[in-house]
Amino acid sequence: MILRALAAAAVISLLAIAWLVLNRETSGPATPATATVSATSPGYSARDAVLIETGADGLPMYTLRAADIREQPARVALLKQVEMQYRDPAGQLWHVRANEARVVDRAVQVDLSGDVAVSGLFPGTAEPLRISTDRLSVDTRSGIIETVDSVRIESSGGQLTARGLVANLREQRIRLESQVHGRYAP
How many C-beta neighbours within 10 Å does residue 84 have? Predict the structure, then answer.
């Protein structure tokens, strides 16, 4: 879905460029032009972009908003000032903010970095869970979010800090990897 929208944007851009080149006035005989595309040339770019992928039920699985998006070679997109809304397999909405993101493989994997903040509800809880870290990967198909970096988890009762986190949103389970410390009010 995302690739179709991005491909359509690229085709429209190419048509506009071709029209401008073909319709400009020339003062002499036409000379052949050559286009050079390097391996580092972006395939497309956009400002204030919104990417939405829907599931079989027609509901958005995730929505990515970015101040800036640039496609890189090998079907990778780099995003700046990112906001993501992700519907987990249980139907709960999770909100994510980050300074940057790297989106690969048709947005199956979204690698977030820079002041990453996640909030959402686990089913059966009334208060949102807040996760903050510097880097976080989201697998949009499996519902797994993970990081190897330091992480802070806050809820209404207290907070936990750890190094490394694997949260399986489908199974509603969070595993902290090491150096786990917590503080909860009795």
Answer: 24
